[in-house]
Write a structure and sequence with these properties.
33% of the residues lie in helices and 31% in strands. It contains 5 helices and 5 strands. It is α/β, with parallel strands linked by helices and 181 residues long.
């Protein structure tokens, strides 16, 4: 029993001596987007698909972005809504443009009734204040979604799979915008 206690104490001292005490200081985390959004109560979202294939419905992506942002209202301090065209701006505007989209199936030998696809979407996004100053921007950023869909065919062939794809893209994009990913 004494040996186990000594071993535990020696292990704790070793961990503290080698790990906790001699590590360089951790980098400061990026300031939360909430600071950048100070004073912004609303975010209007517009989305467009300028890719040659037009697989992803921009209105579905905009809806998914709105839902994702509204789930994070406590972090951002703002509520989001979708608009067809940018109009009179009261808070901030999030403009999303799909530049390209490509997907390829990855065979699932054990589950032939399922479809696994790797989808790569290149997106440009800008979050702009009412006064025209940019809060956040990405230009030509690739987002990759590797997902198993419960139907055969491409993820944009039916509305359920298309909604799943839009939701996953929105989650990744908002995560990057809020510096969660």
């Amino acid at each position: 029993m004494v040996e186990k206690k000594l071993l535990t104490v020696a292990s704790a001292v070793g961990i503290l001596a080698c790990g906790a005490c001699f590590l360089p200081p951790l980098p400061e985390p990026a300031p939360p987007l909430r600071n950048a959004l100070r004073g912004v109560r609303t975010i209007q979202i517009t989305a467009a698909n300028d890719s040659p294939s037009h697989h992803i419905d921009p209105s579905g992506l905009a809806q998914a972005l709105m839902q994702n942002l509204n789930w994070k209202t406590s972090e951002t301090g703002a509520t989001a809504f979708v608009t067809q065209k940018a109009g009179v701006l009261e808070g901030a505007a999030l403009a999303i443009t799909i530049l390209s989209e490509d997907g390829k199936p990855i065979p699932l030998k054990d589950y032939p009734s399922l479809s696994r696809w790797k989808v790569v979407v290149k997106i440009s996004a800008t979050l702009t204040r009412q006064d025209g100053s940019q809060i956040w921007q990405e230009t030509g950023t690739e987002y990759s979604v590797d997902h198993v869909y419960p139907r055969s065919g491409a993820p944009w062939d039916d509305s359920h799979s298309s909604n799943l794809l839009a939701s996953e893209l929105a989650d990744r994009l908002i995560g990057r915008m809020l510096k969660l990913r």
